[in-house]
Amino acid sequence: MLNQLKLNISNFLLRRHLSKKKHCPKLITLSEAKKVALVFDAEDLDSITEVKFLLKYFLKLNIDVYVLGFINSVKKDNNFISTLHINYFNSKDVSFFGIPNNLKTNSFLRNKFDLLINLSLKNSFPVKYMSLMSNAHFKIGMSYNNNDIDYDLIFKLKIKSLNYFIKNIIHYLEIINHNNEK
What range does the domain containing 11 cover? Predict the structure, then answer.
């Protein structure tokens, strides 16, 4: 009950912040993209491995990639050490209502991205907040069956698996790229 109330207030605050922020979606193809952001729930080593696969995919296309993972815990263990392309934030870095606020998250929100991909399968609020408040031209995310139309490209998955989601993202980004070649 308390968690649901807290989530409702968090979503209200997010909607209020979004209403002040102007987002004009602009389709950016893979051949046009220069900077991509990936945001995800860093639950376990498998999710990190899957995200690294997508990171390598974009790097092969000479696209600069920034990855931000949320650890739903107060402590980070040795599996969650920031690297050149991957940074993490955890529960200590969010307010009572789940709004991220530290140097890494604030820096992320100031950056401009061509594409942003929310890889969260759980619709965790801190990841959702970072995705929707980012300065990205084109935002990609998943449908969570709550009629939110928050992203410019929304995936409704038959199989809730990060691997399946990433393969579909790559597939459709390549189709969009091919169909919009000049």
Answer: 2-179
